[in-house]
Amino acid sequence: MAAQHFSPALPAPEAPRPHRTAKSGYGKQAAPGQGPSRPADFASLPERERYIAGYIDRLPEGAAMDIKSLAKDLPLYGQMAIGSALRALAVAGHLRRVRRRVEGDGACRWVTYTYWSRTAHDNEWWTAALSGGTATPEPAPVAAPLRAAAPEPPAPPKPEPEVPGAPSAAYRALAGLGRRDPRLALSAADCAALEPLAAAWFARGASAEHLTSALTAGLPEPVTHPLGLVRRRLTDKMPPHIPDAPRLASGLRVECVECGRPGPADALPDGLCRPCRGPQTQAPAPDTADGVPPRVAGLRELMRTP
User: Fold this and answer.
1) pTM (2 decimals)?
2) pLDDT 10s digit of each residue in the chain, 306 long?
3) Do 94 and 174 reside in the same domain of the chain?
4) Residue 190: enclosing H or E segment and its boundaries?
5) Which domain holds residue 70?
6) Which of 12, 86, 209, 266 is the most exposed, fewest CB within 10 Å of its CB?
7) Are 53 and 84 found together in one domain?
8) Measuring CA to CA, how many Å separate 305 from each of 82, 112, 302?
């Protein structure tokens, strides 16, 4: 077993004033469910990680937390050591890198932020928080999910409400086929007969333009029986029913602390993707000889100063 670090860490320097503000990402975001600041915070971590964690904990919201900025403010450690420490702090449950979608000026881009918690949380808590569920810290009260400041992407336009007595959207789309291509001109009785099939397209998310294009593309010459041809195409080209895909809360995606690979929260335990986790970060046995919390007991080698 690797040697334990009982010697007190050097006191972390105060956050610079004015602090470095993140411009292109990596800004500090406070996670919910944190306990109050105490002198014993981070006491179970090795010296380097205690020092860096104490400094990060004092940084204000929005402060730069990228490796280069931290290395400039913490001259005791270089960029490689800072990167290793951030990885170790993620494994210990104190931070997660998150990509947030930011929209503005007609463009969309992804910006990386760092959620920080002085109270270490396990993977289940982080997964619930980053996925928009209810995260229960250990053993603090229930915490709210992380919230992104970026606005939600605009919702798809809702179909116009049907006016009682007016033709449905499916009926109107069928009636308009003749204007798109005279070979598909349908009678009122034809539209009424085909309306249930067309309505099934709309129920599966198709738009009127989608339906019209599918029915008028590549028509034979001539069309001798429009009703039969449209019925056949409505049946054969019926779009699949695709349920709404689950999204991370407020456009968030977790980012691997090591390589930056994005993914859903439950696919990056310890804030690391599968290739970067490797065998050295597997969860240790729950009962340890020295009483150190399980998530910390397996980090001794990982956190050794290079």
Assistant:
1) 0.52
2) 444 444 455 666 665 555 666 665 668 888 887 778 888 889 899 999 999 999 999 998 888 888 998 999 999 999 999 999 999 999 999 999 888 777 666 666 778 888 999 999 898 888 888 776 545 445 443 344 455 444 444 554 455 555 556 889 999 999 999 999 999 999 999 999 999 999 999 888 888 898 999 999 989 888 899 999 999 999 999 988 755 433 434 557 788 888 888 888 778 888 888 888 876 444 444 444 444 455 555 554 454 444
3) no
4) helix 188-203
5) 25-132+248-297
6) 209
7) yes
8) 10, 26, 9
